[in-house]
Structures are given as structure tokens and as C-alpha cells.
């Protein structure tokens, strides 16, 4: 027990000596610990701040890029809507053109039918008059209009293809930008706390892109400008189409009015000619009646000469039976002979007048037949022009239909 007390007392009172080696080591360890602490609180914080600044800068650039893409996406969308609207307007103009082309069928049919009907005019009435000249002009005009409308339809088809091709390029560009916009928005929304982040080995080795920002913006600008050029060309074409439709409607209506006026003048001319022929026919018929009465009177006058001639000739015959010297050329005999010659002369004169009257009646009958024939021709021509052609022309389309609105 005493040994134990002594030992504890001795150990507690004993002072350890200084050992330089041990102190140096301890000082080195303390300095190293201090340096580590300084590194832990200095360099790591410095790189962390740099990383955060870089990430923030990248986020801003992604957001700016998203805004740039959004701007061009909106521009593309606006141009696409305008191109869609222009495509609809072109389609509407094509429908108008097709309606206008269809509408020309009726005027052409009317004009050709009028020409065919007028081919049935007879004799002197079958003439190449002003009506026929204007009808041929109308046919020629309508055929030229049909060719023009067909060429215009072909032009609008070509322009529609160009507009749709430009719209397709815009839509493709818009689709690419929409996809890129979503990607960059999603990328910009990523941070250290989102669940979608992970290591992507080798992604930093992938090429940065297929175009530079300037080329990227210029490409979209070029697409928009190309679309606007096609849209402007389309607007100009629609303006031209409007002028074309207005002109062809007015030209057809104007020529139709000219033809109608020619028909009206021709019908009036035929009616006037027919009236004059009928008046002439009435006079001829009166003359024929008078001549027939004259013929009857002449025949009666000739017949009335028969009895006096018989008397005179009978007297002469009686006196031929006088005997011998009694057969004398006395005054009675000479007067009887004179009487016979007078009657013969009267009969001959009356016969000449009768022949003339008969010839006159024959001429009048021929004239009457000719007049009746001409009146019949005029009546037939009036029926063709007034009843058939002018009635047919009342079906001529309105200007509204001719310009494709119906």
C-alpha cells in the first residue's frame, strides 16, 4: 500500500523533459492542419462561386436564346398565318375564275345558236348583215376570253404552288424553332435541385452546332422574305385577276348590247320592209281586180261586135245573089264593105287591148306571187330574228355571273 502511494506521488510530481524532435513534429502537424483549414475555407469557396456565376450566365444566355427563338418563332407564325390567308384568297379567286369560265358557255351557245338559226333565212334575206358581223365578233371575243381565263387559272395554280412551298418552308422552320424553343426553355429551367439532371458522358464532345447565330437568323429571315415575296406576287396576281374579270364582264356585256341593238335595228328594218311589201301587194291586188274587170269588159265588147258583123256579112252574102246587072257596086254595097272593115278594125283594136290586158294581168299576178314570196321570207326572217334569236338572248348572263360571283 505504501508502495502504491509512493508510486502515484512520484509519477504525479515527475516533470517530463523537453524533447526538440517531438516539438518540431507537433508544430509541423499544427501548421499543416492550419493550412488545410485555410484551403478548405478559401479555394473551394472560390471555385464554387465561379461555377455558380458561370451557371447563372449560361442560364441567362439560354433564356436570351429562348427569347430570340421565340421572336423568330412568332415572326414565322405571323407569316404562316398570312400565307394561309393568302392561300385561301387564291383559292377563292380560282373559284371565281372557274365560275367565270363556266359562265362563258352560255353566251357562246347563244351566239352560235343565233348564227345557226340565221342560216335558215331564205333567198334575198340570207345576207351577211350587221347582225351576223356582230355575232361573229361576239363568238371570237368569247373564245379569246375563254383562252385568257384558262391561262389565268394556270397562272394562279402556279402561284398557289409557290405560296404553299414557301408556307411549307416556313412551317418546317417554325417546327424546328418550336422544338428548339422547348429544349432551350427546358434547359434554362434546369438547376442543381431539379430531378432531371444526371451525368451525360461524352456530351461535351459533340459538335456545337451546324450553323452560326448570324447564319441561323439570316436563314429564317431569308425564309420570311421569300414567303413575303411570294405573297406580294400573289397579291399582285389577285389584283390583275380582279381587273381581268372586270374587263371581260364589261366586254361581254358591251358586245352583247351591240348585238342586241343590231338585232333590234334589223327587226325594225325587216318589219318596215314587210309593211311596204304588204302595201305594195294590196295595190297590186287592186290592180289585178281592175284589170280582170277590164278584161271582162273587153271580152264583152268583142262579143258585142259579133252580131253587127253577122248582120253586115249576111247582107253582103244576100246581095251576092242579085241577078245580072242587078249585082251592082252601089253605095249600099260599098258601105256594107266599109262597115265590115270598121267592125274588123274595132274587133282587132279590142283584141289588142284584150291581149295587153291579159299580159298586164299576168305580170301583176307574177308580181303578186313575188311579193307574197318576199313577204313570206320577211315573215320567216322576223320569226328567226325576233322570236327565236332575240328571245334566246334574254338568257344572256348578268355581269355579276360573268365576273364569277355566281
Which spans have pLDDT < 50 for at least 5 consecutive residues?
1-41
Query: What is the number of helical segments per DSSP (H or I, 4+ residues)?
Result: 9
Number of strands: 0
Approximate helicity band: over 70%
End-to-end separation in angstroms reads 135 Å
Average pLDDT confidence is: 85
Give Rg in angstroms.
63 Å
- Largest sheet geometry: none
Strand content: under 5%
SSE order in H/E notation?
HHHHHHHHH
The global form is rod-shaped
Helix/strand/pairing category: mainly alpha
Features:
406 residues; mainly alpha; disordered N terminus
Walkthrough of the structure:
By secondary structure, this protein is mainly α. The chain is built from nine helices and no strands. Helix 3 packs antiparallel against helix 5, helix 3 runs parallel beside helix 6 and helix 6 packs antiparallel against helix 8. It is rod-shaped, with a radius of gyration of 63 Å. It starts with a helix and ends with a helix.
Brief sketch in words of this structure:
The protein is mainly α and 406 residues long. It contains nine helices and no strands. α3 packs antiparallel against α5 (130-189).
Summarize the helices and strands and which ones pair or pack.
Layout: H1 2-13, H2 20-41, H3 43-103, H4 105-118, H5 130-189, H6 213-304, H7 306-319, H8 331-392, H9 399-402
Helix pairs in contact: 3-5, 3-6, 4-5, 4-8, 5-6, 6-8, 7-8
